[in-house]
Amino acid sequence: MSSSNPLLYLDESTLQSLDITTENVIECMERLILRQSDGEAWCTPKSVIQPGDGRYMMSTLSAAQEPPYLAVKSIVLNPENTARNLPQINGLIILLDSRTGIPAAVLDGNWITAIRTAGASAVVARRLARQDSRTVAFIGAGVQARSHLRLFADMFPLEQVIVYGRGKPNRTALCRDAESRQLRSVDCRDPREAVRDADIIVSSLTMTDEIEPFIDPDWLKSGVFLSSTDCAKPFRSADLGIFTHIVIDDMEQEAAMPDPMVPTDLISGDLSSLVAGRTQGRVDDGERCAFVFRSVAIGDLALSSLAYELARQSRAGLQMA
What we know:
Blueprint: E1 8-10, H1 12-17, H2 22-37, E2 41-43, E3 47-49, E4 56-64, E5 69-77, E6 89-97, E7 103-108, H3 109-128, E8 135-139, H4 143-155, E9 160-164, H5 168-180, E10 184-187, H6 191-195, E11 200-203, E12 225-228, E13 245-248, H7 251-256, E14 269-270, H8 271-275, E15 289-292, H9 297-314, E16 318-319
Parallel strand pairs: 1-7, 8-9, 8-11, 9-10, 11-12, 12-15, 13-14, 13-15
Antiparallel strand pairs: 1-16, 2-4, 3-4, 4-5, 5-6, 6-7
Helix pairs in contact: 2-3, 2-9, 3-4, 3-9
């Protein structure tokens, strides 16, 4: 990139128009995860501000030698946005040339966050989920549930979607999404019934909520794969030892956090070590496996870089300068 390239703004509709596939998402993330493992890509622990009024403010920073970009993401999560008829989470990503610092693009943070989070789950699910998984249960039915359904429906021979959540509009929307994919949907009002027969569980409750654990891991059947974007808060942490493998997003980031997601002695490895092969994946069909994570900054960089390059090739996006 040179200073002659215009600064692009890529909004949600533009990003959707790029037709980025599930395989594209997984490949770009795995590539940068491996480069991070080799010391050619970097990210810092995420920064969080919680004023105590329900808002959750977060920023992440990641960079790479190749593709030569640096991504800074800032988001604000505010439950009061619902009353304003706005999404609870809003933010943006600024992409710079990592060699010169020249701005390259500003991207919609909502779309990137939704897809890269599901992408991280997909990267791990390739290694820890049973490839014959047919039933997926969602604990929480918001944006993350929908993005995970999109990717997992491409990856597994799914037949049934079970939905558990508080908001009826979100549950209804997720069930309709499932049905549009020719999948059976079940709107379930009991958490134990929701998870007990699931091959895959996606837990994505809003992080600003005070969550009292309400799911006993012993309810989960053998062979299950859990992807928890909400730091496993709905699960009784004392019983997480039933999992054969628990992988987290970043060991270095986790060491810097004041509130551990899971007991340290239960962690098998992180995203980087799993993709690089230093942490073992699923060995037996009966193993219970989990991916518990806060954020995947390297995923923001991977997906933003891919979107920017595709937008340049197709002359998409709004030129800002």
